[in-house]
Amino acid sequence: MEPEIKLGKTFEGVVVKSAMKDTATVQVERYVKHPKYKKFMRLSKKFLVHDVGNVAQIGEKVTIRETRPISKRKRFVLVSRDTQVKSEE
């Protein structure tokens, strides 16, 4: 019996910043139902993502996956770019 490979959590979000070397900031939004008032709230959180080659551009929708710690705050890697931004020239 071979050991099971554990993959981390995956999220979909929008790139909000990509000015750092091999790093992008991705904002992930999720809807949560309030336990008492039953109203749905939109919560968002920003994650630092390892982006090899700086391929992610601001405004793109991307998929990220949890991985081993890469730096002090970076624990996610860029899996795929779902929608690409059209460059204005």
From TrEMBL:
Record GO biological process: translation
Source organism, top-level taxon: Bacteria
Keyword vocabulary terms for this entry: Ribonucleoprotein, Ribosomal protein, RNA-binding, rRNA-binding
Keyword rRNA-binding: yes
Record bears the keyword Disulfide bond: no
CDD domains: Ribosomal_uS17 (cd00364)
SUPFAM superfamilies registered for this protein in UniProt: Nucleic acid-binding proteins (SSF50249)
GO molecular function: rRNA binding; structural constituent of ribosome
A GO term from the CC aspect: cytosolic small ribosomal subunit
Protein purpose: One of the primary rRNA binding proteins, it binds specifically to the 5'-end of 16S ribosomal RNA.
Description of how the protein assembles with itself and partners: Part of the 30S ribosomal subunit.
Family membership: Belongs to the universal ribosomal protein uS17 family.
Protein name: Small ribosomal subunit protein uS17
Organism of derivation: Candidatus Kaiserbacteria bacterium RIFCSPHIGHO2_02_FULL_55_20
